[in-house]
Amino acid sequence: MNERSWLHSRWMLAIVACMAVLYTLIMGNLLFVSGRMPGVNYQYNLVPLETIKPLLFEKNRYHTEAWVKNLFGNIVLFIPLGIWIPWLFRMCRKFLLFTGIVVMLLLAVEITQLITRVGSFDVDDIILNTLGAWIGYIGFTLFIYSQRKTRK
Which of 5, 89, 93, 95 is 20 to 30 Å from 134 by CA-CA measure? Predict the structure, then answer.
């Protein structure tokens, strides 16, 4: 059985598509609904690394929960994006195209947060989320590569 026969079979693509829809619903809830109310004093950050640097270099200023949530949460939660986008959309297996699409999606999320005043617009979130998507993309690429190696 080759890569094409099971990785891109209808049933596998249907499973991945269902997982992508479920992931999208969960992320929509986390980013816009769960415990979120439109803020009066809305905060935003347009300066790259402004919120990341203090979390990395002044770790003792933050509770562990806040530190882990802000750094690792923003990375880990977007790893699945790096898996299902190239799996479902073959053209997105090219790294630059994949990155462009991910950044556009994340920018749309941040702009929606800015407009609705739910959450906060933070360019550092885009950086960390993209890093998470890259980790997923690399994992997916290594998986595909290993499948090709074992099939030969």
Answer: 5
